[in-house]
């Protein structure tokens, strides 16, 4: 029965084991792999390569769509199999190797990886490993639960290994919109004017002569970790929903809002679930990842359509959606990430972007990626694609953590991912600061008044007042700007 998923007869003799396929990956190769936030990733070939690398001196450069599931990044890192990784990761073991300098990491806007490959600004992909539901008669491939950068890998890789995942129903055919924009200087308009517009084909084109191996798998994606809402995330969601309600009263938005993008994690889920009991209706999403909350809102009749590059959900939600795909197939679409995250579409559609910060400062600069300025957490992901181009750019974080030893609102961020010029709204569990139309000194006071934890408000006000006396368009005391971070490292708390 599995062989029926190879509908091009000439490829049936390419079937092999994962271990045999892993032998096709050689030391020093650039490898492209499907996978976007645990969805649609290589389930067996890359792990088999990691196992091989434990006893052989092998290192590769690995490009993906985003993070991989099944601890694959960790297995590769621990086996010493990675020399360079891009553009995003969330694995603890890999993160440790990156922060010690053992693995080089390129933290990249998720819309850019494919563009850089097409423009020949990155090394060419030697071999790609792509998960598919089946191979069509013309040799084209049907992706599974994500598209990511698979379209580009299929087009540009010198060789391709396909993992046919029989755990994924062939009914996924039709949920993907595969569109590849032309290379420069022949780039044309991408004709999407609403999230539900489909402009491409249903399968990824692939030259069958590139296929050097086909491996069968029967494994579901790693389930998403869905943390329940807590008092802080609930408060953040409440502040954002109240802000939206006020924007409607002012006539800036309607009860349908504009297409929403939300980052992954419990804050995003809490915000989206807040819409369930609100007056908003007929909502749409133009995002990167569809989570449990997306399908909960569809079931509640609040969300009419969602566009993204992957579906990353809990085990229960996976069964609900893909076990009953006829119910949902006209409610969502999966696209290549250089389409789901392309700046021009985000600007054209007027997307409302909601993303998570590690910390932000009193002028609205946001750090999304680094602890104390040096140690990477996960990566910028698509937050920059959306923040700079959104109708509304919203960043959220808790005001303080670790029993309030750490303030997430600071005099100056230790690393800048999103400058004050790209940030409209900042939200903590304490409150919300609307920074639109404000000069730096106005922004600082608004943030101090609305977003700072009470334990730090006086301390931050003192810093701003004394900096203002010294003068400047954006007042700072450079000798104190990072003193909060230094105090944390020395004394275990940012409090004086």
Entry keywords:
transferase, 7-stranded parallel β-sheet, Glutaconate Coenzyme A-transferase, 2 domains, NagB/RpiA_transferase-like, 26 strands, Propionyl-CoA--succinate CoA transferase, Succinate_CoA_transferase, 496 residues, AcetylCoA_hyd_C, 5-stranded mixed β-sheet
Determine the mean pLDDT.
Answer: 96
Number of helices: 17
Q: For the terminal residues, how far apart are their CA atoms?
A: 68 Å
CATH topology term of the largest domain? Glutaconate Coenzyme A-transferase
Structural class: alpha/beta
Q: For this structure, what is the CATH homologous superfamily of the largest domain?
A: Glutaconate Coenzyme A-transferase
Largest beta sheet: strand ordering: 4-3-2-1-5-8-9
Helix coverage percent: 25-40%
Q: How many distinct folded domains?
A: 2
Gross geometry: globular
Tally of DSSP β-strands: 26
The CATH architecture category of the largest domain equals 3-Layer(aba) Sandwich
Domain Acetyl-CoA hydrolase/transferase N-terminal: 10-215
Domain Acetyl-CoA hydrolase/transferase C-terminal: 319-463
Pfam family, one: AcetylCoA_hydro
Protein name: Propionyl-CoA--succinate CoA transferase
Structure commentary:
By secondary structure, the chain is of the alpha/beta class. 51% of the residues are buried. The protein is 29% helix and 18% strand. The chain folds into 2 domains: 2-217, 3-Layer(aba) Sandwich (Glutaconate Coenzyme A-transferase); 231-491, Glutaconate Coenzyme A-transferase (3-Layer(aba) Sandwich), CATH 3.40.1080.10. The mean pLDDT is 96. It contains 17 helices and 26 strands.
């Amino acid at each position: 029965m599995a062989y029926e998923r190879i509908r091009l007869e000439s490829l049936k003799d390419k079937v092999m084991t994962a271990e045999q396929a892993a032998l096709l990956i050689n030391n020093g190769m650039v490898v492209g792999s499907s996978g976007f936030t645990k969805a649609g990733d290589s389930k067996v070939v890359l792990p088999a390569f990691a196992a091989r690398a434990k006893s052989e001196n092998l290192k590769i450069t690995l490009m993906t769509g985003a993070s991989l599931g099944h601890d694959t990044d960790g297995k590769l890192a621990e086996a010493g199999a990675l020399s360079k990784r891009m553009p995003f990761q969330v694995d603890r073991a890999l993160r440790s190797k990156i922060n010690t300098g053992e693995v080089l990491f390129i933290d990249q806007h998720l819309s850019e990886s494919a563009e850089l490959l097409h423009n020949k600004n990155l090394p060419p992909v030697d071999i790609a490993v792509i998960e598919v539901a089946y191979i069509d008669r013309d040799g084209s491939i049907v992706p599974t639960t994500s598209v990511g950068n698979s379209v580009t890998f299929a087009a540009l890789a010198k060789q391709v290994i396909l993992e046919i995942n029989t755990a994924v129903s062939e009914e996924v055919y039709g949920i993907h919109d595969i569109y590849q924009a032309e290379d420069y200087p022949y780039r044309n308009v991408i004709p999407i004017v609403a999230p539900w517009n489909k402009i491409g084909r249903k399968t990824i084109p692939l030259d069958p002569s590139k296929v050097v191996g086909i491996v069968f798998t029967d494994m579901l994606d790693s389930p998403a970790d869905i943390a329940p809402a807590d008092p802080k995330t609930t408060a953040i969601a409440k502040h954002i929903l109240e802000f939206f309600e006020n924007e409607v009263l002012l006539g800036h938005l309607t009860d349908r809002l504009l297409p929403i993008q939300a980052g992954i994690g419990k804050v995003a889920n809490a915000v989206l679930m807040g819409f369930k009991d609100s007056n908003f209706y007929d909502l749409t999403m133009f995002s990167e990842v569809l989570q449990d909350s997306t399908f909960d809102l569809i079931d509640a009749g609040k969300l009419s359509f969602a566009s993204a590059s992957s579906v990353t959900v809990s085990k229960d939600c996976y069964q609900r959606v893909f076990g009953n795909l006829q119910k949902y197939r006209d409610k969502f679409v999966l696209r290549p990430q250089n389409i789901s995250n392309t700046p021009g579409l985000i600007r054209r559609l007027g997307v409302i972007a909601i993303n998570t910060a590690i910390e932000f400062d009193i002028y609205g600069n946001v750090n999304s990626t680094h602890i104390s300025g040096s140690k990477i957490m996960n990566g910028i992901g698509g937050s920059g694609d959306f923040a700079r181009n959104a109708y509304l750019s919203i960043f959220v974080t808790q005001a303080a953590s670790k029993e309030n030893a750490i303030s997430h609102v600071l005099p100056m961020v230790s690393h800048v991912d999103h400058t004050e010029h790209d940030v409209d709204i900042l939200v903590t569990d304490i409150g919300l600061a609307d920074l639109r139309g404000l000069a730096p000194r106005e922004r600082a006071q608004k943030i101090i008044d609305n977003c700072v934890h009470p334990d730090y408000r006086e301390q931050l006000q003192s810093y701003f007042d004394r900096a203002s006396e010294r003068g400047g368009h954006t007042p700072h005391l450079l000798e104190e700007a990072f003193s909060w971070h230094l105090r944390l490292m020395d004394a275990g708390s940012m409090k004086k």
